[in-house]
Amino acid sequence: MNPRRRSTSEAVGAAGGPGKPKGSAPNSIPWPPIIYVAATAAAVILNQVRPLGGTPPWAYRAAGLAVMAAGFALDCSAMLTMRRQHANILPHRAATSLVTTGPFSLSRNPIYLGNTVMLLGAAATFANAWFLVVAPFAVGAVTRLAIRREERHMGETFGAAWRDYAGRVPRWLRWRLGSGA
To answer: Is residue 56 part of a domain?
Structure first.
């Protein structure tokens, strides 16, 4: 492993790490982008067939745009973090680094979380409640077809480092209810 890379980030490289790369990718098909595009298309088509929404006040559209922008910012931040740590970003390719910093310290899947947040924001932005209907299906499909396979791959590739990270950081997002006192 490149010692300089390890010392400048908290990435754990696959080569020389606790687990050896298996040479196999978690998926042969890049499911997440396909699923999120399909969910978006479904919401748009369903709204043409049976509209769910109306013309919201400008404040709803502005709030929706802000939510979409937050999801996009999360996506970009996660992608830049992966790039800085020389990690593979393609969901159908083998992992090259275990990234645990930046948005990855809050969610093990900040890109998928950002995509989901954008779907939710689109509901208000475009006055299309179908986005709220398709979002849970997208989350379920991404979890089943990509995340579980990716997690298995990460466990095989990074061993104890992955297990420690997965034990600290939630798959999607941790919700804190109450004061916790």
So the answer is: yes
